Structure formats: structure tokens, C-alpha cells
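JOB MANIFEST
job_type = single_chain_structure
chain_count = 1
residues = 252
[input]
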Amino acid sequence: MAMEWQVFCKDTLTSEVVSGCLASGRDSTYLEWMFKAWGWTVGVSLTALVVALVVGSIIGVIRTLPDSPWLTRFGNAWVELFRNIPLLVQIFLWYFVLPALIPPLKSLPPFVLVVLALGFFTSARIAEQVRAGIQALPKGQRYAGMALGFTTPQYYRYVILPMAYRIIIPPLTSESMNIFKNSAVAFAVSIPELTQFALQAGEETSRPIEIYLGVTILYVISALVINRIMAFIEKRARVPGFVASGTGAGGH
């Protein structure tokens, strides 16, 4: 079956081919629609990634705090809860169940609810990586910070975490790429991202192969950009002789 790539240049209302693939006025082509959907995907993914990094770092740190058993139990419970419930189920819980139990959540737009669901789901994975990175450091670094008179927050900030983050950049790269792929579940609550575009546009145009190929290319571009950014960060942050030179984001 021959490919009909001009499907992206068709007007979404009239199905007429638009010269240059850019419609004027209030109409739009499928190409413009796809790029708008890509914008939603990037917005959901990057915002959720920020939430995941902040929350995951906090949870990962409190799981390694000395003499804080209750905080450690809370961190462990957080990881087990959000890691063991499927993401799609968590999306529905945030969208349908929690607003019924917590009325203020009803005023939040679906975008925010999806970002929280995706961010907290990913935070459990990042928390595990932060914990592993901290525990991979020699105990002498902790004792050195204490010997200098640092408080617990200070030696975590100035001694432990700067080294731990350097260790976990490769798995963080994988999680950053995964969050773009996992954002596809947002279509389940009508976020107009790439997957929802593919489903709707493929049905409207009867050219699902071309539509899905276009969407796949944008997902690949998103993942490659994240991969290269993280590879650059890893190269700049690597401590010679501490992190193996063969380890890199480019290998993921």
C-alpha cells in the first residue's frame, strides 16, 4: 500500500490539501495539530519530570537518614505504593477517585492531575536510584562531613548528594526518556497529546500508518534530545577516577 504523506497537509475540517501544510485563520492542518499535540506531550513530560526529581530526591534522601526510622519507613512506603500500582490505574485514581474524596482537587485541570500522577509514579523509581547512589558512596565521606562540623542537612547538601547525583545520571537518563513514553497514558483523561492525536487523526483520515509513523518520529526525537542533554551533563559532571569512564548516557 502506497504511503500518502500529504495527509499531514490536509485541512482538519475540509480534508482539502493545504499548500505548504500551514492553514490560515482558525483552521489547521493535521501537521499543525500534530505539533500542538507534541507540545502537550513535552509540557506534561517536562513538568512531571521536575515533580519526579524533586519528590524522588526528597524520598531517596530520607530513606538513608541515620537515626530516623519513621522517616525511613515513610520513604519505603512511598516507593512501594507508587511503584507497585500500574500508571494507568494511578491516572484514573487521580482523575476520578481522589477529587471525589478531596473536593479541592475538583478545581484542578486534568493537566495538573496527570502531571501529579506521572510525577509521583516516576518519583518512586528516582527515589530508589537516589538511595542506591547515596549508599554506594564510601561511609568515610559521611564521617568526613561530620568531622568538619556539618549538620546532617549540610553534609548531605555539600558532601553526599553532589557525588551521589553523579553516580545516578545514567539511570536518570533512562527515567527521563521513559517519562516521555509514559506520558502517552494521558490520552485516557483527554489530554490532547500525541497518542490521542494519533488515535483521532488516524480514524478521521483513514491513514493510520502515516499518522503513527509521524507520531513515532516525534517520540524518537524527544527521547534522543533528552539522551544527548543527559550525556552532556554526565560528561561535564563526571569525577575522573570515581565514575567508570565506560558508563554514559549515550549507552542507553
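[summary]
Confidence is low (pLDDT under 50) at residues 244-252.
The longest helix spans residues 30-62.
exit_status = 0
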